[in-house]
Amino acid sequence: GGANPIDANEAAGLAEGHYNDFETIDWLKDIGRHRKRHREILRRMKLSCRGKLVSLFDSFSGWLCVGLIAVAAGLVAGVVDIGTTWMSDLRDGICAEAFWFNKEQCCWSSNDTTFDDEQACRQWYTWAELVGDSNKDFGAYIFKYLLYILWSLLFALLAALLVKVFAPYACGSGIPEMKTILSGFVIRGYLGKWTLLIKSVGIMLAVSAGLNLGKEGPMVHMAACCGNIIAYLFPKYGRNEAKKREVLSAAAAAGVSIAFGAPLGGVLFSLEEASYYFPLKTLWRSFFCSMVAASVLKLVNPFGNDHLVLFYVEYRSTWSVIEIGPFILLGVIGGLFGAGFIRANVWICRIRKFGRLGRFPIAEVMLVTLVTALLAFPNTYTRMNTSRLIKLLFSKCGPEDEAELCDYKWNSTNDYSGSAPAGPGIYSAMWKLMLAYLFKMVATVFTFGIKVPSGLFIPSLAVGAIAGRVLGNVLEQVAVSRMDSFPFRLFCRAGQPCINSGLYAMIGAAAALGGVTRMTLSLVAIMLELTGGLQYIVPLMIAAMTSKWVGDRLTKGGIYEEHIRLNGYPYLDNKEEFAHTTIAADVMHPRRGEAQLQLLYQDSMNVEDLETLMAASDVNGYPVVVSRDSHYLLGFVTRRDLMLALEFARKNEDGIVGDSLVYFTEHLVAGAVAARHTDAGASSTDGQPPALKLRRIVDLSPITVTDQTPMEVVLEMFRKLGLRQTLVTHNGRLLGLITKKDVLRHIEYLHSIDPHNLIFS
Question: What pTM was computed for the model?
Fold first, then answer.
């Protein structure tokens, strides 16, 4: 039969770019496929008008894709912000005139001049008032307490059930997995539409349940889900995993942009923390994506005050050089908190993962919610929404403020904009804040990792802001009592507070978040955009850098790296140094005593041999060598390409049977074989079945190293080139191969961590 020998190879080509679940992508191959496709578009452009239009659309499609992602992410964030605020207030009461208003919106429509968290306004009814109970007595307090707990449990139960039943991948913050996916790993369904839907609804429920978690981390995951879904509308990105990673990097930037209203911070976060491969084109696309997402959120205006975040503040006061000491102290406190938090949280998550605790995820969520609600309600600072708490701690006191934190003994002698001695309210607030600090520290350790969507940014900021505010208030009172003595007389000026305790809260918040995540550049940018305080760049940098130094001395990486390690994801951290003297021969497989590598021979195997080999093994690919006796390396064939080529040949080529010889070379080398069989696709004279030529599916230039190559060089090749595996040779002869998993196991072994925890191929 006259079958065309190329057809089988083209069938395998159709499968290029498709990876199975939990596989590492081949960056070089995917980028090569993209370039080949681009060359084809340029060739067609010269031939016809249609080719010119296709080329124009192709060059514009990247910007269009990230623009659509930004619009989708901005809308999702707007809905989540509005929903969260409304549901959080639902635990306290309801707006009688329009139930869809939250407490603040309800009181805008009212003509009341007073508005505070306890009393609100006439339009807003607490649940006790609706039942007809007066709002002040002990019975009403108990009733409010019980309802607070019941609403919290209901919201938490709904969130946990939605995650368990519809989208198990929607739990957690999603940033460790995002980092792993961006480093070239495939987790099917992690960025799907169900995950997006359940994560958005689940995070509203989880935050409204009063759990110690934030919605900002999950917004990165939700934006990436938008990115993945929209990428499939553009074959350039949908069918090429390496190109899709560029779009997902831009989506991660948009996620932080909408979470904090910090477009530049988002781009820097994607560069510093999330992305693995970040070419200049991706930087521009991330910039554009961040910008559009923030604009869309501004249009939605979720908080009704034209700010993109709940805790936007503006300070007018300056800071003094002498305050660098306290800023460093806050950095140290943040670093210690971060390191302690990481150790405690990873320890609990390990028990959750490998112990009995993990078998009852919903019961655990309910227990954590119950304890949180019981302990949080009595203290006003733990009862309120965490974003509102941060806003309160960041804010500056004026004479008209009636809050406890602003209970100063103002009198005619001290200017209202300056500093004054503390009243009893401040002392009461300090005790409550210290209790809130301990409570939030412990509660966040237990909450991060339970099976509901949960972010870590907001709880970390809150813990740091409490520490900063307390330190600021203490220093302020010391300065007020010694205003004329050195060093306080240097920076106590008339009309300005000696110490701005709101600024200290901001610096403390940055230090705590830096201690937990080890971000520096992106952290400072996010804090600047959050607060609009450009003159505080240096204090923020001091706090971020100090907390990173202190944290790095105590634990190896940030919380996300630790969770990647705990889950066994194949993530090669490109920030780590490799200080050992091992060589490729120490790491490659097979070693002495292990089973031999499964190889393909260039011209001495038939179709049945190949099918038997594939049925007996589950490796991702096979090296091609000359023959059984001569292991000189010719190339590499992936399992998927080989399987599809054989299936296609069996179905569509005449005369291909189990005995058909398979050639992986263009020119037939072995003389005897060449004499016995004619070219592929033609029946030979002595009744032999036609041969099958599969040279086009062979990668003739696989990345190879010699057995004496230092492992630090091999590691750099895996990081910089994004390899799945490299072949090890000696004088051209194949000795073995090293996969990404082998490299990770070797690093874990050298760090004396259990290397068998790595679960994915």
Answer: 0.89
